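Example for tutorial group B:
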C-alpha cells in the first residue's frame, strides 16, 4: 500500500469535483474502444469528476505532451495507459513535483522509482500469455506444432509480457516451436499484412498466437484470402475477448481466447477518489480475466457488452 502523502494529496480548492486528466493510448482495437467507453461513462459529472480526455494515437510523445498539459492545468489526478513501458521518469517527476498524483491503468511503466505513481490497475499480461501457451501445449496433440506470433506494439507492456508468458508455457514442450514473430501493432490492418507475409514465408504454419483479437481477426482475413480455413488448416489463439473475437471463436475460426478485462473505469474512479482524499491505496490492483473455448464463447456472447 502507498500512503497518500501530503505532497500527493491534491488540493481541489474546496470543490468536491475531481478534475482528472486521462491520457489514452489511442483507438487501435476493439478492446481500447471498450476501455475508453468504460472510463468516459464512469468518470462523469454525476459521479463527481471533471474528465479531460486525450488520445495519443499510439505515440509516446503525444502522451507526454498530454500529461504536461494536465500538469500545467493543475488537475487533481492524472491517469494514463502508457503506450510503451520505458521513458516515463522525467514527466512523472514533473507531475510529482507539481504534487499531482498519477494512476496507471491497463499498462505498466518500467521505472526504478515506484513513488512516481500511486497505483497500477490492470491485468496480469504474463499470466495471459502463459494461459494461451498452456492451451496450445496441452490441446493440439503430440505432432510438431509450428506457431507464428503476432506481437502487440513493440515496447508495450502487453507485448513484452504476453510474449514472455507464452514462451514460458511452451518451454517444456519440444513439439511446440515459434517459427516467426513480428509486431502487428495491435491493429486488424497490420495483423492482416503481417499474416500475409507469414503465409508467403512459411508453408507449414499450424497455429497463430495473436497478442489481441483484432490482429487475429486481420490474420483470419489473410488466411481465408490464401484459400485456407481458419480453425482447421491454421488454428488461432488470441487475447482480449471483445465481441468480434468471441463471435469468431463461436464460429470456430478462433480456437481459444484469454480474456483481458477493459472495464477499468470503476476501479479507476474508486482509486482516484481515495488518492485525492489522502487515503491509502494498493500499489497494484490485478483485474480478473477469464478464458473461453468455443462453447464458453457461445454461452457468453448474448450478454457480452463490448
Ligand atoms: O493493453 C491492452 C492491450 O491493448 C489490448 O490487449 C489490446 O487490444 C490493446 O490495444
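The residue assignment follows.
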Amino acid at each position: 500500500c502507498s500512503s497518500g502523502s501530503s505532497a500527493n494529496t491534491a488540493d481541489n480548492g474546496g470543490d468536491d469535483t475531481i478534475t482528472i486528466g486521462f491520457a489514452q493510448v489511442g483507438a487501435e482495437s476493439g478492446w481500447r474502444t471498450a476501455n475508453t467507453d468504460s472510463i468516459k461513462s464512469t468518470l462523469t459529472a454525476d459521479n463527481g469528476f471533471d474528465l479531460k480526455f486525450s488520445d495519443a494515437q499510439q505515440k509516446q510523445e503525444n502522451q507526454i505532451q498530454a500529461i504536461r498539459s494536465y500538469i500545467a492545468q493543475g488537475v487533481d489526478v492524472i491517469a494514463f495507459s502508457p503506450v510503451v513501458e520505458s521513458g516515463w521518469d522525467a514527466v512523472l517527476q514533473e507531475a510529482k513535483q507539481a504534487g499531482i498524483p498519477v494512476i496507471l491503468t491497463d499498462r505498466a511503466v518500467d521505472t526504478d522509482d515506484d513513488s512516481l505513481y500511486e497505483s497500477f490497475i490492470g491485468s496480469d499480461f504474463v499470466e495471459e500469455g502463459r494461459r494461451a501457451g498452456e492451451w496450445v501445449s496441452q490441446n493440439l496433440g503430440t505432432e510438431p506444432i509450428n506457431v507464428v506470433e503476432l506481437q502487440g506494439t513493440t515496447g508495450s507492456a502487453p507485448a513484452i509480457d504476453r510474449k514472455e508468458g507464452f514462451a514460458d508455457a511452451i518451454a517444456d514442450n519440444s513439439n511446440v516451436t515459434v517459427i516467426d514473430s513480428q509486431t502487428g501493432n495491435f491493429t486488424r490492418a497490420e495483423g492482416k499484412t503481417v499474416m500475409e507475409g507469414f503465409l508467403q514465408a512459411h508453408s507449414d504454419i499450424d497455429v497463430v498466437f495473436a497478442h489481441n483479437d483484432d490482429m487475429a481477426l486481420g490474420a483470419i482475413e489473410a488466411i481465408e484470402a490464401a484459400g485456407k480455413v481458419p480453425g482447421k488448416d491454421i488454428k488461432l489463439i488470441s487475447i482480449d475477448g471483445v465481441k468480434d473475437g468471441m463471435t469468431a471463436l463461436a464460429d470456430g475460426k478462433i480456437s481459444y481466447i484469454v480474456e483481458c478485462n477493459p472495464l477499468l473505469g470503476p476501479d479507476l474512479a474508486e482509486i482516484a477518489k481515495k488518492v485525492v482524499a489522502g487515503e491509502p491505496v494498493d500499489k497494484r490492483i490485478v483485474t480478473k480475466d477469464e478464458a473461453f473455448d468455443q462453447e464458453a464463447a457461445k454461452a457468453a456472447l448474448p450478454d457480452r457488452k463490448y
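Residues 1-11 have pLDDT under 50 and may be disordered. Compare this with the pattern of hydrophobic and polar residues in the output above.
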